[in-house]
Write a structure and sequence with these properties.
Layout lengths: L3 H14 L7 H19 L11
Helix pairs in contact: 1-2
């Protein structure tokens, strides 16, 4: 059974593989790393969950 983190890793790798399709692949890769890092931070065990409405 796959964990959420495993699935995130697969999605991140897939998006990184597609980075060459964009005009600024390095900027795109950095955005992927930041976004997935934030998701992993929010999903870490023992963290209180908050929802941002905006």
């Amino acid at each position: 059974m796959e964990t959420m983190i495993d699935r995130l890793d697969e999605m991140e790798e897939d998006l990184a593989a597609r980075a060459f399709l964009f005009d600024h692949p390095n900027t795109y890769l950095e955005a992927i790393r930041i976004a997935f890092g934030q998701i992993r931070y929010e999903l870490r065990p023992g963290k209180k969950r908050r929802v941002a409405l905006g």
